[in-house]
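Both lines are quoted verbatim for reference:

——
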Amino acid sequence: MRFFHTFSNVGLYLLLFWPVLTRSQNVPFDSSFGNNGVVTFQKHFGSSLYSMALLPEDKIMLYAYWADTTFQIRLLPNGDLDPSFGVNGIQSEIIPKFSFPLDIIVLPDNKYLALRLYSEGSFIPETGFGVTRHHINGDLDTIFGNGGKTYCIVGNTGAVRDMAVQDDGKIVVLGFRDGQKGVLTRFYPNGSVDSTFGTNGVTLAHMDFPTAMETLPGGQILSTGGRGGGFPNIRLALSKHLDNGSLDPSFAVNGKINDYFEMETEFAISLVVRPNGKIVLGGWADPLKNKFILVQYHSDGSLDESFGTNGMTYTEFDLSANIHKIALLPNGSLLATGVITEDVPGQSFAVSSLIARYDENGKLDMTYGGTGFQKFTVGKLSYVDFMCRATDSTFLLGGPYLVADSTSTNHFYVAKTGPMNIPVSVDEELVPTLKLFPNPISDVVYLECSNYIEGRLKIFDLNGKLVKEQQKSSTLIGVKCDLSQVASGVYIYQFTTSRYVYTGKIVKN
């Protein structure tokens, strides 16, 4: 049985604010949603967003957790709280022994599944993969499993990572148990454990750090993540299972892939399957996590060397960048979302939400903002943790953010994009701005641009002689130029990009 807390002042638990995007490129948000496409949630208690789904009539279901309580939040299509749901759009939920949901899948009959971890308790070391089924109003569907709940014990400890529904309605869950041991479990549509799958409903995923999965026609299952003894020695992992839970011997080498692209650490976070059966993995590489990576395989598990460079493409950033989700666009392009951390002159670093678009061949799509990627920041810092498809080419994004006067990221936002499969150009009103500082300078001058553009900084004396030049990468927002060996005086700077030329004076003390 599910228990609800009722309270008269929802504001004690949740406050809904329209945010200010403190740093943003030309990200095509849906202006009809929230305030210019973004809604933020701030609480008096620490909280996090754990799952998100698009419901019928374009309403949005969110599951958040704070003050030791799981909360269901339902939004109208315009981002407002749905007054017909719970108390002003919010209701709390307690399902004993089941955690907050980590994934939501809406079913054809408009009911939805919620993926949860099941635990017997601290004194009974048994952990299971749990699923609950709900009516559209959030109530448990009591004809599913045992009163709307089901689980399969997998070990003493564990965690759930992803869930998918097969064509026949069977429910597959990916997670790990007893440390780094990836496993899959399967349930019948009615919630009972499918004992014909693996051994009593459980089979090994053949990876140490499982992250994502997809189901294929005929009951086949793809799962991905990382394999290895621990960081930084992690390799991309991809496995394919048959309908009975055994590895598919016709896929790759005995049903599994453990690839190494000579970057020490390579880790897959997300997975999509193209209509032609090709498989794309998205994640990050290197111990510093400073590369977005995409890898494409043929349906038989062989590397598709026509994609990117010999099957893999990577985008290197300043400090670090992580792909959290990838999605396929109708024209075959790929959308990748996540987080970027970068050096900012005069500050320690900046953390921003990142959206990148790649063409069908794995190259950055330069029609997207002129660089192939865009960033935005809600509050002081933010990142994209969730991506949910709203239409073929528009998406809901969600994740944590930090308010300016806080050190806690226990606030979250939801954003809705406009169409992501059309070119986004830098129009005349969004000409990148340039700043050089300090001025006058002592030894080092910093150049900061409002956009990610490639260019070259040149410093000339008043006679026109070039005394210093510095290249700026398109993956960096700023660059520093050391003028410690340049004599005191007045100089002319010139910063040239493919479209613009900026000039001005600087003084060296």
User: Anything to note?
Assistant: The CA atoms of residues 86 and 137 lie 8 Å apart. The two ends are 74 Å apart (CA to CA). The chain has a mean pLDDT of 83. The domain at 431-508 is CATH 2.60.40.1220 (Immunoglobulin-like).
